[in-house]
């Protein structure tokens, strides 16, 4: 195993650190070189306080995990960019020893690529154990195990696609031809082509929702203002809906000709947007019952989900440009909030879901016809 890993180290790990030397130098100076200039504290006490704050405040915890995830995406993008060149086709040889051995070899390579983060995380876990914050320490460990496993699998898939001579878009189409659900196909495209837009939208929606809900104490309970900010974040997802629609228009137009009922097609889209709204659902559940009553928490979830379905169906009503669709989405936001002030939550989310299904049934094939 030493010789194969030495090849990987010289071919991928070493070029990665050489290419990003300036980036690592900047991070090192920022976190370790200017500490005393900031507050006169020692280096150890500064990072000790930073780690304790990270382990005690879960919004800080989520922000740091996002930063670690972005770093993992950075080195995975670098590695997969190398795979797109013919000079790295030799990596397919590693599968000759068996897929299991290749997996552990590539996993060890991911560990080396993630090494700067892992070293700091090791200190974080030690601090968590010292203060008996075992849950926080376990979450850090599980997060990094998940990153290492995921990046290893994605890297192996990149090598396999390279060997089959499949480009990114054709790989997506092939997964559809092999019988993958349409919802999985759309999610996969969104996570590859629109990942940064998705990350930005989810970060904004998540952070805003977190602060407005935590400010909503039961002693001074109100729903209107948190719901307004929440729905505004949901409306921002119209950008994602437009991206998905353009992908369908230019790449998946054949799907409309397949023998599938409109109800079945609507369910496929419902699964896509259920996946997209999962972070908001989890955050709402975490704020019950301290900041939201049960009926209001259910209303938040179903209204936000219904809004995504409604905007998705509305996108079929005409060949809108992005600017036009954003204007329509903003108008829908004001109408929805006005309806919320007039009716209760059950009426609102029932209307959203019912109208989304009715508009989808009426407009789906009209959208396809207008693009021909």
Largest sheet: none
**What's the total helix number?**
18
Oligomeric composition of the shown chains: single chain
Q: What's the number of domains?
A: 2
**N→C terminal distance:** 56 Å
Count of individual beta strands: 0
Helix proportion: over 70%
Structural class: mainly alpha
What does this entry look like structurally?
- The structure is a single chain.
- The chain is built from 18 helices and no strands.
- The longest helix has 31 residues, at 134-164.
- It has 372 residues and is mainly α.
- It has helices spanning 2-19, 21-33, 35-39, 43-56, 58-83, 99-113, 115-130, 134-164, 168-177, 182-193, 195-214, 224-235, 238-251, 262-276, 278-286, 294-314, 322-342, 345-370.
- The chain folds into two domains: 2-165, no CATH class; 182-370, no CATH class.
């Amino acid at each position: 195993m030493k010789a194969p890993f030495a090849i990987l180290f010289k071919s991928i790990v070493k070029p990665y650190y050489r290419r990003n030397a300036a980036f690592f130098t900047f991070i090192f100076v920022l976190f370790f070189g200017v500490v005393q200039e900031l507050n006169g504290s020692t280096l150890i006490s500064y990072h000790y306080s930073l780690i304790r704050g990270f382990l005690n405040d879960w919004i800080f915890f989520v922000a740091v995990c996002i930063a670690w995830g972005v770093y993992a995406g950075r080195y995975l993008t670098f590695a997969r960019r190398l795979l797109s060149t013919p000079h790295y086709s030799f990596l397919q040889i590693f599968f000759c020893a068996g897929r299991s051995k290749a997996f552990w070899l590539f996993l060890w390579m991911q560990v080396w690529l993630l090494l700067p983060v892992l070293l700091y995380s090791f200190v974080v876990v030690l601090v968590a154990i010292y203060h008996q914050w075992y849950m926080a320490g376990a979450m850090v460990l599980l997060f990094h195990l998940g990153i290492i496993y995921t990046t290893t699998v994605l890297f192996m898939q990149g090598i396999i696609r390279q060997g089959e001579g499949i480009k990114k878009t054709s790989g997506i189409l092939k997964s559809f031809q092999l019988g993958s659900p349409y919802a999985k196909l759309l999610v996969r495209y969104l996570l590859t082509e629109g990942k940064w837009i998705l990350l930005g939208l989810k970060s904004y929606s998540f952070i805003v929702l977190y602060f407005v809900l935590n400010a909503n104490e039961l002693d001074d309970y109100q729903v209107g203002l948190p719901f307004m900010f929440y729905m505004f974040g949901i409306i921002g997802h119209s950008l994602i809906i437009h991206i998905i629609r353009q992908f369908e228009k230019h790449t998946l137009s054949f799907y409309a000709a397949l023998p599938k009922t409109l109800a079945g097609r609507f369910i496929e889209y419902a699964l896509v947007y259920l996946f997209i709204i999962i972070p908001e659902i989890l955050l709402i559940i975490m704020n019950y019952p301290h900041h939201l009553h049960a009926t209001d928490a259910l209303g938040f979830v179903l209204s936000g989900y219904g809004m995504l379905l409604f905007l998705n169906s509305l996108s079929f009503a005409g060949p809108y440009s992005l600017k036009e669709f954003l204007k329509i989405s903003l108008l829908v936001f004001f109408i929805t909030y006005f309806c919320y002030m007039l009716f209760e939550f059950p009426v609102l989310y029932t209307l959203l879901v019912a109208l989304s299904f009715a508009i989808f049934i009426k407009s789906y094939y009209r959208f396809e016809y207008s693009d021909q």
